[in-house]
Amino acid sequence: MLSQMDLAGGIAAGQRAQGRVVTIAVDKMKFIRPVHVGDVLCVYTSVGRVGTSSMEIKLEAWALRHRFGGREKVTEAIFTMVAVDDQGKPRPVPKDAPAPQ
Rounded to two decimals, what is the model's pTM? Predict the structure, then answer.
């Protein structure tokens, strides 16, 4: 679960940062309901606070029960991501957010 959420958060942060990002913190990870074998996991993201080089990414994971059943929110968290350059050093996040795709 944590790995899937990190991937989704990295995609959202990378789009906002227009480049590479790294996860530096996982805050407020809340496991609400279990995920079962056969469930489809859907992870939704939104970019919260954007600092000089860091971003707060809000994540929610929802399970589609047994591939056909109802959806339930199973986990939520806030990840902090930092934009990095090719040497792995923090770099500024562009002020203007790219257009949604």
Answer: 0.87
